């Protein structure tokens, strides 16, 4: 494809400049999101560093369980 060839062309109707701008924006956004890889899963190491949920109950052994992954 050469630089002079259009990326797309209108085959029916006469779109306004705003309609063409919206179309180009939508196509650009869709092509960018299609090329984006899925986010990687968090490792067990990172997950254990960010505990979620209720804190360990105070009492015997609480200091030990506070450092363990949930």
TrEMBL record:
Pfam families: ACC_epsilon
InterPro entries per UniProt: ACC_epsilon
Organism of origin: Micromonospora matsumotoense
Annotated protein name in UniProt: Acyl-CoA carboxylase epsilon subunit
Any one Gene Ontology molecular-function term assigned to this protein's record: acetyl-CoA carboxylase activity
Region Disordered: start-end pairs: 32-70
Low complexity bias (residue ranges): 49-64
